[in-house]
UniProtKB/TrEMBL annotation:
Keywords for this protein: Heme, Iron, Metal-binding, Monooxygenase, Oxidoreductase
Coiled-coil ranges per UniProt: none
Official protein name in the record: Cytochrome P450
Top-level taxon of the source organism: Eukaryota
Protein's organism: Steinernema carpocapsae (Entomopathogenic nematode)
């Protein structure tokens, strides 16, 4: 059952818009300047549907959670990211 819930949350994350943070100091990410005070948000759907992280990402496959393969800790964040999630 745990695998089914995890896979459902990968496809339909509840915290898709709960990942906003305020930039604390001006910085450059690649060629994009993010200024102090700007709101930054992670795109959960792009991560959860990334073929580099999830083979055949649009397919509902609870068995993908059988793997002992290590994924990046933020390859799956259905409730957002932070100390009080999952």
């Amino acid at each position: 059952m745990d695998k089914v819930v995890k896979e459902a949350l990968r496809l339909y994350p509840l915290g898709a818009f709960a990942n906003s943070r305020v930039c604390m100091k001006t910085t450059t990410l690649g060629d994009i300047e993010v200024r102090e005070g700007d709101m930054v948000q992670a795109d959960v759907f792009s991560v959860h549907y990334d073929e580099n992280l999830w083979p055949d990402p649009e397919r509902f496959d609870p068995d993908r959670w059988n793997s002992e393969e290590k994924r990046h800790s933020l390859a799956w964040f259905p409730f957002g990211a932070g100390p009080r999630t999952w």
